[in-house]
Structures are given as C-alpha cells and as structure tokens.
Design goal:
2 strands; two-stranded antiparallel ribbon; 6 helices; mainly alpha; globular
Amino acid sequence: MVLTPHSIAGAAIASFFKLNPFTAFFAGFLSHFFLDAVPHWDYKLKSEYKDLENPMNGDLIIGRDFYFDLVKIGFDALLGLSLAVFFFNFGLGVSLEIVLAGVIGALAPDALQFVYTKWRKEPLISLQRTHLLFINFFQKKIESPFWGLSMYCFVVVLFLFLGSLGVFSL
C-alpha cells in the first residue's frame, strides 16, 4: 500500500493513545501490517528488483532510478504526514507528538524493508518475512490503478471519518 493511507490510519489509531507516544508508535506500526493485508495497488518502483522464486531476495538498486523513486516515495510520505497533521492535529486537536508517533510508526515497516535489503540480519529478516506474509499471503494485488486508488481513498476517508467521530479516542 502506498504511504498516504498508512499515515492517515497510523494517526487515527494513534489518537486513541493521547498520553503515550510509545504506544501510539507501536499501534501505528501494527496498523501497517493490517493495511497491507487489504487488497491494494502499489505504484511501480523502477529501482526495485523482485525475485519471483524467493521474495526475500528482493532489492532496491541504488542508481539513477533509485533517486527518482526516492522523490516519489518522499512526496507520498510528505502528503500522508501533511494530511495526518492537518486533520488530526489542527482539525481534531490531537497532540502533534501523538500524530507524529502514529505516522512514523505506520511508515517504519516500509523504511525497515529498505534497510533489510542492504543489511540482511535479525531482527530485520523476521520482520521482512512477516511483512511479506501480510503483503503476499493475505491479499491479492489490485492491478488497476483506478480501483487501487479508489481503495486508498476509501481507507483514508474511513479513517478520517472514524477519527472525527472519536472512535479511536478515550
């Protein structure tokens, strides 16, 4: 799943833990895996190498395409962070510290996937196996960008709506 829905969901769920940034981070972190189990579409990374025989051998090749991908990923992460802060901090009054903890937690598994490709050691190996289990085993990819983006919009609107109702609040 792209990063924007992960950010919104992480902030919404973190808003439940208003007094504890560590718990907000952990909740955002766990939310990442459950959202990856939802059928979704991912934009293509030109620098990504996929080993269809063994997905644990995947890599991001650092080069010209990698820097283009980094801009794409950075824009996605910045959009998600901006929307999360706007709706949950400014809109609903959740502390910035909690919103950031939830967003960072929700984005951490994908950042750690990159670290895994460059440093294949525990606990990153186990984390990558878990990540791939949720991505590949529990769900099917949506091939159509239209339906994939529609699913993202649905997830974002759902979490914004639930957050505005205080569903995640104490």
